[in-house]
Amino acid sequence: IMSQAQGYDDDDAMDEFMDKFTKHKYKGAFDESNWEEEFEKVPMFMKTAPEEIDPEKHPELACLQSIIHDDERGPEEQAKALKDEGNEYFKEKNYKKAVVSYTEGLKKKCQDSDLRAILFTNRAAAHFHLGNMRSAFNDAVAAKKLKPDHLKALIRGAQCCLELRNFSEALQWCEEGFRLQPKDLKLQELRATADKLKRTAERDARKAKVKEKKQRAEMETLLKAIKERGIKLLKPEKPPKHSSDDEDEDGDTTRGMAALDLDGLSSQEATGFKVYLDDQGILHWPVLFLYPEHGQTDFISSFKESDRFIDHLAVMFGEELPPWDTDRKYHPQSLQVRFLRMNMSYCKSWILLFVTQVHVGFSFRCFVKEGTPSFTVLVKGSPFCMMFLSGKTVHQLK
Q1: Same domain for 334 and 275?
Q2: SS3 for 130?
Q3: Nearest residue to 263 (alpha-carbon basis) of 367, 376, 372, 375
Q4: Which segments constitute the Cns1/TTC4 wheel domain (predicted)?
């Protein structure tokens, strides 16, 4: 009787509940517009963890975090929990947070060497995806030291060596892995890649060495040709070294080589051209003409040492004069050519070689600066020319 009475009471309560359920809408229920947002608040269904965990907004996450970082638990348990936390961040591709979790796990100083090896290996993987190859490699080394037969650490170490272009070392890591798993496909792939890149790097190194040797020989030949012509080179931003004509030949060569190396590079960076010696043994110089009266310049990328000034002037000021010459006075026969650094005019029929050489018995010395002989061009006898030369001694050579 009591059982029947109790069942009756339960049925009445259920009927009352169902009657109330149909008449009153449940508060806080999910609907089509908010169910995804509400699911994101539940730790089990979260796709990504929030950057900052606010206990008021995320009480469940705060609770879980406090459990993970509970100092009352043993180091091994805490380290394992932090490893799991790092793995979740890793799955979300949040590698920075994964590194933090694995690092905190390692700080627990647990005595489980296998667990510590896994933490190092996992952190190496996170560093690898962040592009921190040296840190990833160091973690792989630490993991291998704790657990020499940890295949993942060996694979990660080989991958890091490849990225760091240490191909021989990458092959060594692969060989250690093959002693554990001779048929591992990932190791086979890494070894093949490392071997191919190693052979390519060695071939490129041989080519670079041959190229360097060839360039050095060409430079020595060029320097010898310049020295034989008596041409003096001037380093940028430094005054010329004045010395007697019988100065030590070796010392002069050393100075010339250093100056040419700097000057040639400087010229090439600025203009894209530098002095060179052709197959016929003729020097070609990049030459700059300056027209100070109009603030204009002309650049000749390959001025042969055997070329006459008048020949180039005839091309530049031939039938058609430049637009900036509004007075139409820049005719080849009326122009005066002067070396940029010297108070000296040159005969236009001279060749470049004669101008750049240092001649015994002459009272002037011409230095080529920054690998580019530069000349000032003026209209002979013009007011600007007289003003430009005012206060200087001009020697007209004929």
Answers
A1: yes
A2: helix
A3: 372
A4: 279-339
